[in-house]
Amino acid sequence: MLKDITIGQYYPAFSVIHAMDPRVKFLMMIGFIVVIFLAWNIAALGLVLVFCLAVLFLSRVPVKVYLKSLKPIIPIIIFTAVLNALYIDGEVLWKWWIIEITKEGLLRSGYVALRIIMLILITSVLTYTTTPTQLTDAIERVFSPLNRLKIDVHVFAMIMTIALRFIPTLIEETEKIMNAQKSRGADLETGSLLQRVRALLPILIPLLFSAFHRAFELADAMECRCYHGGKGRTRLKQLKCAGRDYAAIGIFLPVCAGIICASVLIPIF
Amino acid sequence: MTILETKKLRHIYGEGTPFEQAALTEVDFTVESGTVVGIIGHSGSGKSTLVQHFNGLLKPTGGEVLLKGKSIWDEPKKIREVRFQVGLVFQYPEYQLFDETVEKDIAFGPKNMGLDENEIARRVAHAADVVGLSERLLKRSPFDLSGGEKRRAALAGVIAMESDVLILDEPTAGLDPRGRDSILDRLLRFQRESGTTMLIVSHSMEDMARVADKIMVLDHGRIALYDETGAVFSRAAELKALGLDVPQITGVFHGLRKNGLPVEENVYTVAKGRDTLLPLFRERGQGTC
């Protein structure tokens, strides 16, 4: 069902990772993604894996929840792994007709699969441990230097907050409308492509109508509370780096350095 | 004749996930053809879940739903046929309006049934007449109507399917008193004329007293009471324990009884109240007035 979509889903728990400053988490995640792509051998990837698992453990989010976030990308992992296994030249292990599987290919596909899994897991850590508001707040602050280039970062952050806030609402609304039209005999499952696109109209039109309606209502509500953009706006919750954030940076940077060193100093395979 | 029946109906949301929640447990329920059944229960008691099983929007976790003696999930591919036989109007159904004109919107259901144009036109005209939408409004865009008119248009959209069973989830919620009375009266008249079996979910005990032949009380996904309207409303203490109430007029009569007046317990409409009290007045009044 539509409800299974888990974009930006926050998993409430009490952990060091939950308590960290969202800016630090956000920047660390970006840094770690870069590092994942720099890791080119077993030693480096092993370090990445250890660090990733340590963070997962610290986040106190159940393993089951992480596995659920991996589920939708399993086909992508398999696809890339298979392609890599087939197209890398090297020591042939197994051959049938024009299909060759090499030792290097197998290793490479293992690396690639592992790398994609790490990518998803580490971004999941961020979304599971950070509320959408915290996250947009962090993004606003991280990108605030762009204000000098006359880009209104606050506006973009606000748009993002609102969009994230309304994803569940719109999903619920879509389900409601679909049920109502199905009750009137709307047929969404069969027919040619054109017929199916036409069958979507009775759902899309009311959905658009209500989305606009909601947007106007929200705008009114915001104006009633004197919202006038980011200028001179103060915050209820000030973001502050605490000891744990400096400690996290203190651990993170050497780990990254270690991974890069391992990747550079030890030969690829 | 039984038209709709559930046998040991169970429904669990999100089975096998940490968010698992039982919404219905062992619901055994039968509806006689041509009657009006009221479904009441506090929020979260499973009313909406139950009615969505009747036209196959939800599939039971366990047990079955029988329509005219046949399980509706016997042939999953023919579930649309079930939806044509069991019309369902959701709460605040205005959001289902989408077509260019009210007329075309009401025709959406009948068109999906594959009827010919004359029949569709007849049904649209009839449904509009049932809910009291004028010819002039039929040509307008549904988005230009007032709240009450939109409600009528949405109701007409389901009535036009002329299903054997019509389920209404809070059809009068959010309407002003006059709009509420008018819609209820029209629905009731339509029910009497067509003999449609009707299931109405409502929070208003007054509305229930006016329209329902039988009332089912749901509590935590179980049937707490299911009996004739008068019999259900005579059990005020039980209803109050379930977070519900009796119609105000019933409350008055329960009070009168407690104070020693020889009145019946199952008075639940003002009209019946008047008919009970007037003879009493005449009887006793002769001495005192």
Task: Please give a structural write-up.
Chain A is mainly alpha-helical and 269 residues long. Chain A folds into two domains: 1-131 and 238-269, no CATH class; 153-229, no CATH class. Chain A is 69% helix and 3% strand. In chain A, strands 1-2 form a two-stranded antiparallel sheet. In chain A, a hairpin with a 2-residue loop joins β1 and β2 (99-102). In chain A, α2 packs antiparallel against α6 (103-129), α2 (22-38) runs parallel beside α10 (243-265) and α8 crosses α9 (193-224). With 289 residues, chain B is of the alpha/beta class. Chain B has three domains: 1-74 and 164-182 and 189-243, Rossmann fold, CATH 3.40.50; 95-163, no CATH class; 247-289, no CATH class. Helices cover 43% and strands 22% of the residues of chain B. Chain B is built from 13 helices and ten strands. Chain B has helices at residues 47-54, 79-85, 102-106, 108-112, 117-131, 135-138, 147-159, 177-194, 205-211, 229-233, 236-241, 248-258, 270-288; strands at 2-13, 21-32, 36-40, 62-67, 70-71, 86-89, 165-169, 197-201, 214-219, 222-228. Chain B has a six-stranded mixed sheet, with helices on both faces. In chain B, β1 and β2 form a beta hairpin. The radius of gyration of chain B is 21 Å and the shape is globular. Classes of the chains: A mainly alpha (269), B alpha/beta (289). The A-B interface holds A 64, 173, 176-177, 179-187, 201-203, 205-206, 209-210 and B 18, 52, 55, 57, 80, 83-84, 87-90, 93, 95-99, 108-109, 112-113, 143, 157-158, 161.
